[in-house]
Structure to design on (648 residues):
């Protein structure tokens, strides 16, 4: 009897102390938490989040609909350092026409402790904002009210959707700790789905079969549960951190039910290529197009080589047509309308470019791809829904030239970051598919030049200039165009001293950007007795390693092959002479994938320092992570050397 009583008591205590995952059941214990047990430095953590995806038949019209029920609870420890996406909720819905997704029961609350009592502040309907992003997508969002350190935020919503092929991706890992994340997918047994899982972490997976209520078939239930998930660690040279997060996505592979026509969606990349070339909004757009003939002839009449024709046509399209910022690998307006209206989506513009290149007699093809924001393609999981963009390519003398005319500042074989997602698919006219590398082959350079006067009291004055070309100039121009004021502020935030006469100049041929400014009376040297000690790299010195961890299983993404050079000229201060100079350094990474040179000399009353940092490839495999970390450590040690001047 005593044993039974003790067991019952323990069960009651355990139940009382267990996390209550029901919406609205926020506890004082959650509100009293002062730090995360997973990561004490975290600005917040997800106490729980769950999604219940149900594919069900409607009794009204007999069609299948997907219902997504989502809810979660977030603890705030440091609201000023918690990413804004956790302080608000935003739900995107695919809504191209009357056949659209619908958001129901969108609600949220903020909970705080006030003199030991739980106070709830609800999100009002008037605080929920709807925004039409484009003709295909709209969002609804709200910001949590009355948020303070210690708050608990809670949200819940339901989305109904007639679209059942791609269920969407669920992330179990975030930038903050996750105590529990659940994802459940219920579907009829005759809907066969495949899973695309990402990330290094794996949770528990529970599967079961249950009789569908009122119907003569079974429902399959798959439940994924992750607990005590550490936050995604920050990594250098990663274009989209979501590629590293543990996540899952379901996609329909087959519909097979007695008495109905079976449909098989399982495919191969080769079949996807053939389907695309037979699609009126892809391959069909490359047929005919006689209306382009005159324009192509006018553009290329004075050109004698394939390379000249390619360059002229690419320059014409990117200069005369404007991208509407809509990502797509199939056309919206179509090439004919885009040619007339001078604007279109990615496929409208780049498929028109392909057609014009073909009319010039060039071996041109479209390249379908997944952009960086859309995650890397899983090549073992062929799926047309994983593609969201198309660019153009031309083959000349066995060399492949890639072009994206949606970006006015891009060049041939110099693609914008959004395209640099490792591999894409060249779709040949017969539908065959050729996998190609999406890389920038041209070398991008940045050249820093400093001319410095060093005063006897250890202060520096002088001029600074930094000239960038290729990928560096292109990405900066794109940022400038998007937010000129914000770009300038962000650039100047890199410096801790007052800057004078800041300018950004573009070269006459628009191939490079030059940043320049002046500065004066900036304390830079230490005076110790009769000696002056200064680091000759001044504010350009590398002090901290970018690589924080020992290993990783994801490539290093640089965007381009890199060459960074510095020339720093420092006038020796009056009344001083050089006592010692840093030691010259030179080293490379195995395979000559990267190298660094540091040289310094005294010449004509000046100190002249030159350095060169180079990376030979736009990305490196993951096994180079530690090698690059060691490489940067050597660079840091080289740049941590001082000049010692002594009074005459």
């Amino acid at each position: 009897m005593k044993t039974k009583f003790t067991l019952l008591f323990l069960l009651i205590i355990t139940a009382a102390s267990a996390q209550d995952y029901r919406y609205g059941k926020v506890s004082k214990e959650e509100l009293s938490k002062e730090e995360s047990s997973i990561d004490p430095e975290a600005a917040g953590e997800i106490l729980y989040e769950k999604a219940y995806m149900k594919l069900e038949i409607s009794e009204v019209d007999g069609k299948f609909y997907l219902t997504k029920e989502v809810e979660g609870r977030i603890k705030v420890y440091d609201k000023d350092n918690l990413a804004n996406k956790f302080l608000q909720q935003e739900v995107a819905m695919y809504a191209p026409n009357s056949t659209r997704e619908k958001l129901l029961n969108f609600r949220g609350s903020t909970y705080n402790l006030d003199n030991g009592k739980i106070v709830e502040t609800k999100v009002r309907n008037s605080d929920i904002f709807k925004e039409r992003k484009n003709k295909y997508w709209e969002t609804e969002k709200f910001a949590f009210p009355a948020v303070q350190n210690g708050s608990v935020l809670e949200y819940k919503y339901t989305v109904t959707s007639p679209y059942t092929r791609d269920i969407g991706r669920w992330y179990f890992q975030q930038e903050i700790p996750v105590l529990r994340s659940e994802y459940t997918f219920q579907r009829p047994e005759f809907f066969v789905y495949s899973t695309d899982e990402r990330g290094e972490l794996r949770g528990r997976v529970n599967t079961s079969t249950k009789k569908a209520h009122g119907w003569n078939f079974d429902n399959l239930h798959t439940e994924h549960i992750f607990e005590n998930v550490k936050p995604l660690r920050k990594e250098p040279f990663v274009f989209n951190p979501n590629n590293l997060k543990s996540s899952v996505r379901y996609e329909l592979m087959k519909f097979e039910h007695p008495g109905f026509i079976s449909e098989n969606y399982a495919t191969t990349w080769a079949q996807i290529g053939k389907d695309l070339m037979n699609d009126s909004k892809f391959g069909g757009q490359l047929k005919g197009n006689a209306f382009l003939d005159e324009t192509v002839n006018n553009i290329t009449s004075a050109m004698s080589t394939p390379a000249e024709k390619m360059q002229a046509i690419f320059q014409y399209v990117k200069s005369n047509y404007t991208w509407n910022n809509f990502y797509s690998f199939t056309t919206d307006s179509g090439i004919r309308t885009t040619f007339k209206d001078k604007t279109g989506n990615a496929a409208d513009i780049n498929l028109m470019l392909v057609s014009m290149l073909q009319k010039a007699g060039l071996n041109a093809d479209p390249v379908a791809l997944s952009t960086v924001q859309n995650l890397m393609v899983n090549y073992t999981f062929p799926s047309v829904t994983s593609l969201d963009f198309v660019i153009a390519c031309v083959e000349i003398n066995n060399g492949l030239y890639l072009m994206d005319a949606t970006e006015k500042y891009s060049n041939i074989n110099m693609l914008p970051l959004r395209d640099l997602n490792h591999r894409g698919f060249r779709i040949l006219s017969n539908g065959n598919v050729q996998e190609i590398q999406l890389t920038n082959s041209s070398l991008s350079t940045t050249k820093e030049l400093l001319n410095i006067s060093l005063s006897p009291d250890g202060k520096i004055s002088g001029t600074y200039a930094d000239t960038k070309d290729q990928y560096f100039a292109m990405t900066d121009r794109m940022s400038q165009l998007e937010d000129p004021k914000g770009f300038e502020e962000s650039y100047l935030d890199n410096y801790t001293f007052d800057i004078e006469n800041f300018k950004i100049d573009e070269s006459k041929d628009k191939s490079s950007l030059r940043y320049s400014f002046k500065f004066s009376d900036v304390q830079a040297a230490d005076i110790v007795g009769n000696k002056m000690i200064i680091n000759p790299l001044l504010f350009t010195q590398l002090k901290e390693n970018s690589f924080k961890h020992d290993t990783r299983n994801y490539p290093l993404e640089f965007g381009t092959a890199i060459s960074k050079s510095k020339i720093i000229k420092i006038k020796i201060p009056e009344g001083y002479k050089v006592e010692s100079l840093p030691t010259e350094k030179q080293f490379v990474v195995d395979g000559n994938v990267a190298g660094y040179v540091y040289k310094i000399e005294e010449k004509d009353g000046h100190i002249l320092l030159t350095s060169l940092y180079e990376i030979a490839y736009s990305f490196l495999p993951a096994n180079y992570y530690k090698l690059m970390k060691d490489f940067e450590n050597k660079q840091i040690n080289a740049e941590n050397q001082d000049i010692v001047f002594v009074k005459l």
About this structure: The chain has three domains: 23-255, 269-438, 443-647.
